[in-house]
Amino acid sequence: MHEGSRIRSIMRKTVVTLGLAFVFLVVLGMDVRAQVTEVTLVPGPDSSAILAATGMTDQQLQDVVKAELNRLFQMSNAAGFLQRFGDAQSFTSKGLGVDYASEATYVEVGGAASFALGMDKSYQPGNALPVQVQSVGMNASLMAGVSLMPFGIPVMLFGNGMYVPTQRYGDMSGSLDNWGIHAQLRLFGPSRKTSSRGMLVRWGGIAITTGYDYSHMSLRLNRDITSNFSIPNSVTQGVNVDVTGSASGTAVFGVDMTTKSIPLEITTSVRLLTLLTAYGGMGFDFNVGGTSVMNLDLDARLLGHIPGPTNLDMGSAHIHATIPPVGPSAAKIRGIMGLQVNLFMVRLFTQVNIANTTPTMASLAAGLRVAY
Q: How far apart are CA 229 and CA 307, in angstroms?
Protein backbone atom coordinates (compact mmCIF):
# COMPACT_ATOMS: atom_id res chain seq x y z
CA MET A 1 0.00 0.00 0.00
CA HIS A 2 2.88 2.31 0.87
CA GLU A 3 4.60 1.66 -2.49
CA GLY A 4 1.31 2.26 -4.34
CA SER A 5 0.93 5.60 -2.57
CA ARG A 6 4.46 6.58 -3.61
CA ILE A 7 3.75 5.76 -7.28
CA ARG A 8 0.51 7.76 -7.21
CA SER A 9 2.35 10.68 -5.59
CA ILE A 10 5.06 10.62 -8.28
CA MET A 11 2.47 10.53 -11.05
CA ARG A 12 0.50 13.41 -9.54
CA LYS A 13 3.69 15.48 -9.46
CA THR A 14 4.32 14.51 -13.10
CA VAL A 15 0.89 15.78 -14.15
CA VAL A 16 1.34 18.99 -12.13
CA THR A 17 4.77 19.67 -13.65
CA LEU A 18 3.53 19.22 -17.21
CA GLY A 19 0.52 21.39 -16.47
CA LEU A 20 2.67 24.21 -15.12
CA ALA A 21 4.98 23.94 -18.14
CA PHE A 22 1.97 24.10 -20.46
CA VAL A 23 0.59 27.20 -18.75
CA PHE A 24 4.03 28.82 -18.88
CA LEU A 25 4.33 28.27 -22.63
CA VAL A 26 0.80 29.43 -23.43
CA VAL A 27 0.49 32.44 -21.16
CA LEU A 28 3.99 33.79 -21.80
CA GLY A 29 3.39 34.05 -25.51
CA MET A 30 4.59 31.02 -27.46
CA ASP A 31 3.79 31.68 -31.10
CA VAL A 32 0.34 30.13 -30.87
CA ARG A 33 -2.91 31.40 -32.31
CA ALA A 34 -6.37 29.91 -32.80
CA GLN A 35 -9.37 31.48 -34.46
CA VAL A 36 -11.60 32.98 -31.79
CA THR A 37 -15.04 31.66 -32.59
CA GLU A 38 -16.99 33.95 -30.25
CA VAL A 39 -16.43 37.32 -28.57
CA THR A 40 -19.49 38.63 -26.72
CA LEU A 41 -19.55 42.05 -25.02
CA VAL A 42 -21.97 43.26 -22.35
CA PRO A 43 -21.60 47.08 -21.95
CA GLY A 44 -21.18 48.50 -18.45
CA PRO A 45 -22.58 51.63 -16.81
CA ASP A 46 -19.46 53.69 -17.66
CA SER A 47 -19.17 52.76 -21.34
CA SER A 48 -20.68 56.14 -22.29
CA ALA A 49 -17.78 57.92 -20.56
CA ILE A 50 -15.31 56.07 -22.79
CA LEU A 51 -17.41 57.01 -25.83
CA ALA A 52 -17.32 60.66 -24.81
CA ALA A 53 -13.55 60.57 -24.19
CA THR A 54 -12.72 58.90 -27.51
CA GLY A 55 -15.40 60.37 -29.77
CA MET A 56 -16.32 56.87 -30.96
CA THR A 57 -19.74 55.45 -31.62
CA ASP A 58 -20.90 52.48 -29.61
CA GLN A 59 -20.33 50.17 -32.60
CA GLN A 60 -16.84 51.53 -33.23
CA LEU A 61 -15.86 50.98 -29.60
CA GLN A 62 -17.23 47.44 -29.64
CA ASP A 63 -15.34 46.70 -32.86
CA VAL A 64 -12.06 47.94 -31.34
CA VAL A 65 -12.56 46.02 -28.08
CA LYS A 66 -13.48 42.82 -29.92
CA ALA A 67 -10.46 43.14 -32.21
CA GLU A 68 -8.11 43.67 -29.25
CA LEU A 69 -9.57 40.76 -27.29
CA ASN A 70 -9.20 38.65 -30.40
CA ARG A 71 -5.56 39.69 -30.69
CA LEU A 72 -4.84 39.14 -26.99
CA PHE A 73 -6.23 35.63 -26.69
CA GLN A 74 -5.83 34.12 -30.13
CA MET A 75 -2.71 32.10 -30.92
CA SER A 76 -0.79 31.92 -34.18
CA ASN A 77 0.09 28.58 -35.75
CA ALA A 78 -2.19 26.61 -33.43
CA ALA A 79 -1.84 23.50 -35.60
CA GLY A 80 1.95 23.63 -35.33
CA PHE A 81 1.76 24.26 -31.59
CA LEU A 82 -0.48 21.27 -30.95
CA GLN A 83 1.54 19.08 -33.31
CA ARG A 84 4.73 19.89 -31.42
CA PHE A 85 3.09 18.99 -28.11
CA GLY A 86 1.75 15.76 -29.61
CA ASP A 87 5.22 14.91 -30.94
CA ALA A 88 6.74 15.52 -27.50
CA GLN A 89 4.15 13.34 -25.80
CA SER A 90 4.73 10.57 -28.35
CA PHE A 91 8.48 10.85 -27.77
CA THR A 92 8.05 10.23 -24.04
CA SER A 93 6.92 6.66 -24.78
CA LYS A 94 10.37 5.73 -26.09
CA GLY A 95 12.47 3.87 -23.54
CA LEU A 96 9.61 3.07 -21.15
CA GLY A 97 8.45 -0.38 -22.23
CA VAL A 98 11.49 -2.14 -23.75
CA ASP A 99 14.83 -3.28 -22.33
CA TYR A 100 17.72 -3.01 -24.79
CA ALA A 101 20.51 -4.22 -22.50
CA SER A 102 19.52 -6.75 -19.81
CA GLU A 103 19.35 -9.99 -21.85
CA ALA A 104 16.97 -11.59 -19.33
CA THR A 105 16.99 -15.39 -19.38
CA TYR A 106 13.38 -15.80 -18.25
CA VAL A 107 11.47 -12.70 -17.06
CA GLU A 108 11.90 -9.10 -15.96
CA VAL A 109 9.76 -6.37 -14.39
CA GLY A 110 10.30 -2.71 -13.69
CA GLY A 111 9.23 0.88 -14.22
CA ALA A 112 10.50 4.10 -15.74
CA ALA A 113 9.68 7.76 -16.19
CA SER A 114 10.57 10.05 -19.09
CA PHE A 115 10.66 13.71 -20.03
CA ALA A 116 10.75 15.13 -23.57
CA LEU A 117 11.54 18.58 -24.98
CA GLY A 118 11.14 20.13 -28.39
CA MET A 119 13.97 22.67 -28.78
CA ASP A 120 14.74 25.38 -31.31
CA LYS A 121 16.80 23.76 -34.06
CA SER A 122 19.30 26.64 -34.07
CA TYR A 123 20.46 25.81 -30.53
CA GLN A 124 23.73 23.91 -30.19
CA PRO A 125 25.41 22.73 -26.96
CA GLY A 126 27.78 25.43 -25.77
CA ASN A 127 25.77 28.32 -27.19
CA ALA A 128 25.55 31.37 -24.96
CA LEU A 129 21.87 31.72 -25.85
CA PRO A 130 19.38 29.80 -23.68
CA VAL A 131 17.52 26.79 -25.03
CA GLN A 132 14.27 27.87 -26.70
CA VAL A 133 11.73 25.26 -25.56
CA GLN A 134 8.86 24.80 -28.01
CA SER A 135 7.10 21.76 -26.50
CA VAL A 136 7.24 19.51 -23.45
CA GLY A 137 5.99 16.06 -22.51
CA MET A 138 6.14 13.69 -19.54
CA ASN A 139 5.27 10.05 -19.03
CA ALA A 140 5.79 7.06 -16.74
CA SER A 141 4.98 3.38 -17.05
CA LEU A 142 5.37 -0.05 -15.47
CA MET A 143 6.66 -2.88 -17.66
CA ALA A 144 7.14 -6.66 -17.74
CA GLY A 145 8.94 -8.93 -20.16
CA VAL A 146 9.25 -12.64 -20.82
CA SER A 147 11.95 -14.45 -22.79
CA LEU A 148 11.22 -17.20 -25.31
CA MET A 149 14.83 -18.41 -25.16
CA PRO A 150 13.88 -21.46 -23.03
CA PHE A 151 11.96 -22.60 -26.13
CA GLY A 152 14.90 -21.93 -28.41
CA ILE A 153 13.42 -18.67 -29.80
CA PRO A 154 15.69 -15.58 -29.43
CA VAL A 155 12.78 -13.23 -28.76
CA MET A 156 11.70 -11.11 -25.78
CA LEU A 157 8.05 -10.05 -25.43
CA PHE A 158 7.28 -6.87 -23.48
CA GLY A 159 4.16 -5.19 -22.18
CA ASN A 160 3.86 -1.87 -20.34
CA GLY A 161 1.19 0.47 -19.08
CA MET A 162 0.02 2.86 -16.39
CA TYR A 163 -3.12 4.83 -15.60
CA VAL A 164 -3.41 7.82 -13.30
CA PRO A 165 -7.02 8.98 -12.79
CA THR A 166 -7.98 12.64 -12.78
CA GLN A 167 -6.47 14.53 -9.88
CA ARG A 168 -7.31 18.13 -8.96
CA TYR A 169 -4.80 20.64 -7.62
CA GLY A 170 -6.35 24.04 -7.09
CA ASP A 171 -6.69 25.54 -10.56
CA MET A 172 -5.52 22.44 -12.48
CA SER A 173 -6.65 18.86 -13.02
CA GLY A 174 -5.28 16.15 -15.25
CA SER A 175 -5.06 12.44 -16.01
CA LEU A 176 -2.54 10.22 -17.77
CA ASP A 177 -2.65 6.74 -19.29
CA ASN A 178 -0.38 4.78 -21.60
CA TRP A 179 0.26 1.24 -22.74
CA GLY A 180 2.43 -0.61 -25.21
CA ILE A 181 3.33 -4.08 -26.52
CA HIS A 182 6.67 -4.93 -28.11
CA ALA A 183 8.66 -7.87 -29.48
CA GLN A 184 12.44 -7.91 -29.61
CA LEU A 185 14.44 -10.27 -31.83
CA ARG A 186 18.07 -10.81 -30.77
CA LEU A 187 20.60 -11.81 -33.43
CA PHE A 188 24.24 -12.89 -32.94
CA GLY A 189 23.74 -12.76 -29.20
CA PRO A 190 26.48 -13.97 -26.83
CA SER A 191 26.65 -17.41 -25.32
CA ARG A 192 25.14 -17.79 -21.87
CA LYS A 193 28.26 -19.66 -20.72
CA THR A 194 30.52 -17.77 -18.31
CA SER A 195 34.10 -17.09 -19.39
CA SER A 196 36.92 -14.87 -18.15
CA ARG A 197 36.82 -12.88 -21.39
CA GLY A 198 33.07 -12.50 -21.13
CA MET A 199 33.49 -11.14 -17.61
CA LEU A 200 35.64 -8.30 -18.96
CA VAL A 201 33.80 -7.29 -22.12
CA ARG A 202 30.90 -8.84 -24.01
CA TRP A 203 29.07 -7.79 -27.14
CA GLY A 204 25.31 -8.14 -26.86
CA GLY A 205 24.64 -8.77 -30.54
CA ILE A 206 21.95 -7.01 -32.59
CA ALA A 207 18.43 -6.37 -31.29
CA ILE A 208 15.51 -5.58 -33.61
CA THR A 209 12.48 -4.24 -31.79
CA THR A 210 9.00 -3.30 -32.93
CA GLY A 211 5.56 -2.94 -31.36
CA TYR A 212 2.86 -0.40 -30.60
CA ASP A 213 2.83 2.62 -28.25
CA TYR A 214 -0.26 4.47 -27.03
CA SER A 215 -0.16 7.57 -24.82
CA HIS A 216 -2.93 9.90 -23.63
CA MET A 217 -2.71 13.05 -21.52
CA SER A 218 -5.65 15.21 -20.51
CA LEU A 219 -5.20 18.55 -18.76
CA ARG A 220 -7.68 21.17 -17.65
CA LEU A 221 -6.01 24.36 -16.49
CA ASN A 222 -8.05 27.14 -14.86
CA ARG A 223 -6.01 30.27 -14.41
CA ASP A 224 -6.83 33.90 -13.74
CA ILE A 225 -5.54 36.22 -16.47
CA THR A 226 -4.94 39.96 -16.42
CA SER A 227 -4.13 41.87 -19.62
CA ASN A 228 -4.21 45.44 -20.83
CA PHE A 229 -4.65 47.12 -24.21
CA SER A 230 -4.93 50.66 -25.53
CA ILE A 231 -7.86 52.15 -27.46
CA PRO A 232 -6.39 54.19 -30.33
CA ASN A 233 -8.30 57.37 -31.12
CA SER A 234 -7.67 60.95 -32.25
CA VAL A 235 -9.46 62.67 -29.35
CA THR A 236 -7.91 61.52 -26.06
CA GLN A 237 -4.51 59.85 -25.86
CA GLY A 238 -3.75 57.23 -23.22
CA VAL A 239 -7.16 55.55 -23.05
CA ASN A 240 -6.70 51.89 -22.15
CA VAL A 241 -8.63 48.89 -20.86
CA ASP A 242 -7.74 46.25 -18.26
CA VAL A 243 -9.03 42.74 -18.94
CA THR A 244 -9.08 40.99 -15.59
CA GLY A 245 -9.96 37.43 -14.63
CA SER A 246 -10.45 38.03 -10.92
CA ALA A 247 -13.34 36.67 -8.85
CA SER A 248 -15.81 37.11 -11.69
CA GLY A 249 -13.61 35.98 -14.59
CA THR A 250 -11.54 32.84 -15.06
CA ALA A 251 -9.67 31.67 -18.15
CA VAL A 252 -9.98 27.96 -18.83
CA PHE A 253 -7.35 26.22 -20.95
CA GLY A 254 -7.96 22.59 -21.85
CA VAL A 255 -5.67 20.27 -23.80
CA ASP A 256 -6.22 16.63 -24.69
CA MET A 257 -3.37 14.74 -26.38
CA THR A 258 -3.49 11.19 -27.77
CA THR A 259 -0.62 9.58 -29.70
CA LYS A 260 -0.32 6.16 -31.35
CA SER A 261 2.93 4.99 -32.94
CA ILE A 262 4.71 1.92 -34.27
CA PRO A 263 8.48 1.94 -33.60
CA LEU A 264 11.14 -0.01 -35.47
CA GLU A 265 14.48 -0.02 -33.66
CA ILE A 266 17.89 -1.56 -34.30
CA THR A 267 20.26 -1.49 -31.34
CA THR A 268 23.41 -3.12 -30.03
CA SER A 269 25.10 -3.22 -26.63
CA VAL A 270 28.46 -3.79 -24.94
CA ARG A 271 28.83 -4.99 -21.35
CA LEU A 272 31.94 -4.08 -19.36
CA LEU A 273 33.09 -5.96 -16.24
CA THR A 274 29.51 -7.32 -15.89
CA LEU A 275 28.73 -4.05 -14.07
CA LEU A 276 28.12 -1.54 -16.84
CA THR A 277 26.26 -1.88 -20.15
CA ALA A 278 26.30 0.77 -22.88
CA TYR A 279 23.85 0.51 -25.75
CA GLY A 280 22.73 2.52 -28.74
CA GLY A 281 21.22 2.45 -32.19
CA MET A 282 18.60 3.97 -34.43
CA GLY A 283 14.81 4.05 -34.30
CA PHE A 284 12.09 4.89 -36.81
CA ASP A 285 8.70 5.95 -35.42
CA PHE A 286 5.62 5.81 -37.61
CA ASN A 287 2.73 7.69 -36.00
CA VAL A 288 -0.43 5.85 -37.00
CA GLY A 289 -2.97 8.04 -35.23
CA GLY A 290 -3.76 10.34 -32.37
CA THR A 291 -4.94 13.91 -32.03
CA SER A 292 -4.38 16.98 -29.87
CA VAL A 293 -7.25 19.33 -29.03
CA MET A 294 -7.13 22.62 -27.12
CA ASN A 295 -9.83 25.09 -26.11
CA LEU A 296 -10.08 28.47 -24.41
CA ASP A 297 -13.01 29.89 -22.46
CA LEU A 298 -12.81 33.28 -20.74
CA ASP A 299 -15.25 35.43 -18.78
CA ALA A 300 -13.69 38.73 -17.76
CA ARG A 301 -14.45 42.20 -16.47
CA LEU A 302 -13.41 45.23 -18.54
CA LEU A 303 -12.10 48.23 -16.63
CA GLY A 304 -11.45 51.40 -18.65
CA HIS A 305 -8.94 54.15 -17.89
CA ILE A 306 -8.75 57.71 -19.20
CA PRO A 307 -5.96 60.13 -18.20
CA GLY A 308 -6.26 60.66 -14.47
CA PRO A 309 -7.20 58.27 -11.65
CA THR A 310 -10.63 57.40 -13.05
CA ASN A 311 -11.61 53.71 -13.30
CA LEU A 312 -14.59 53.09 -15.57
CA ASP A 313 -16.76 49.95 -15.55
CA MET A 314 -17.01 48.98 -19.21
CA GLY A 315 -18.90 45.74 -18.53
CA SER A 316 -17.85 42.18 -19.30
CA ALA A 317 -16.67 40.02 -22.18
CA HIS A 318 -16.90 36.35 -23.02
CA ILE A 319 -14.29 34.79 -25.31
CA HIS A 320 -14.58 31.23 -26.55
CA ALA A 321 -12.15 29.43 -28.88
CA THR A 322 -11.87 25.82 -29.96
CA ILE A 323 -8.98 24.47 -32.02
CA PRO A 324 -9.86 21.53 -34.31
CA PRO A 325 -8.01 18.24 -33.68
CA VAL A 326 -4.41 18.15 -34.91
CA GLY A 327 -2.41 14.96 -35.44
CA PRO A 328 1.29 14.42 -34.63
CA SER A 329 4.01 14.34 -37.28
CA ALA A 330 3.75 11.32 -39.59
CA ALA A 331 7.16 9.84 -38.84
CA LYS A 332 10.61 10.56 -37.47
CA ILE A 333 14.06 8.97 -37.23
CA ARG A 334 15.84 9.10 -33.88
CA GLY A 335 19.10 8.11 -32.29
CA ILE A 336 19.11 5.91 -29.17
CA MET A 337 21.82 6.01 -26.47
CA GLY A 338 21.68 4.39 -23.07
CA LEU A 339 23.69 3.36 -20.04
CA GLN A 340 22.78 0.65 -17.54
CA VAL A 341 24.28 -0.35 -14.19
CA ASN A 342 23.92 -4.08 -13.42
CA LEU A 343 23.69 -4.96 -9.71
CA PHE A 344 23.02 -8.69 -9.64
CA MET A 345 19.41 -8.94 -10.88
CA VAL A 346 18.74 -5.21 -10.45
CA ARG A 347 19.25 -2.91 -13.45
CA LEU A 348 19.39 0.87 -13.17
CA PHE A 349 19.29 2.62 -16.52
CA THR A 350 19.02 5.95 -18.29
CA GLN A 351 18.28 6.46 -21.98
CA VAL A 352 18.40 9.43 -24.35
CA ASN A 353 16.48 9.66 -27.64
CA ILE A 354 17.26 12.47 -30.11
CA ALA A 355 15.50 13.28 -33.40
CA ASN A 356 16.93 15.82 -35.85
CA THR A 357 13.52 17.29 -36.61
CA THR A 358 12.14 20.84 -36.51
CA PRO A 359 12.12 21.54 -33.63
CA THR A 360 14.86 19.16 -32.42
CA MET A 361 13.22 16.54 -30.21
CA ALA A 362 15.00 14.97 -27.23
CA SER A 363 13.82 12.75 -24.39
CA LEU A 364 15.41 11.39 -21.24
CA ALA A 365 14.12 8.20 -19.61
CA ALA A 366 15.32 6.64 -16.38
CA GLY A 367 14.17 3.68 -14.35
CA LEU A 368 14.80 0.40 -12.55
CA ARG A 369 14.26 -3.17 -13.68
CA VAL A 370 14.74 -6.61 -12.17
CA ALA A 371 15.82 -9.28 -14.66
CA TYR A 372 16.13 -13.02 -14.06
A: 14
Q: Is the peptide bond before 359 cis (omega within 30 degrees of 0)?
A: yes
Distance CA 358, CA 362 (A): 11
CA distance 238 to 337: 57
Count of domains in the chain? 1
Per-residue model confidence (pLDDT) at position 319: 75
With beta carbons less than 8 A apart as the criterion, state whether 245 and 225 touch.
Answer: yes
* E strand segments, the chain: 36-43, 107-119, 133-147, 155-169, 172-187, 201-223, 226-230, 240-244, 251-272, 276-289, 292-305, 311-326, 331-343, 346-355, 360-371
Cα 229 from chain centroid (whole Å)? 31
* Distance of alpha carbon 313 from alpha carbon 46, whole angstroms: 5
**CA-to-CA distance for 249 and 300, rounded, in angstroms?**
4
Task: Look up the pTM and report it.
Answer: 0.74
* 10-residue stretch averages of pLDDT, the chain, 372 residues long: 55 53 45 56 85 85 78 57 77 91 91 87 51 73 95 95 77 82 90 64 93 87 70 78 56 77 95 93 90 76 77 82 74 93 94 88 94 93
Q: What is residue 89's three-state secondary structure?
A: helix
Domain carrying residue 336: 2-371
Residue-level pLDDT at 230: 83
Among 232, 207, 360, CA closest to 283: 207
Q: What is the pLDDT of residue 102?
A: 83
Cα–Cα distance measured from residue 156 to residue 147, given in angstroms and rounded to the nearest whole number: 4
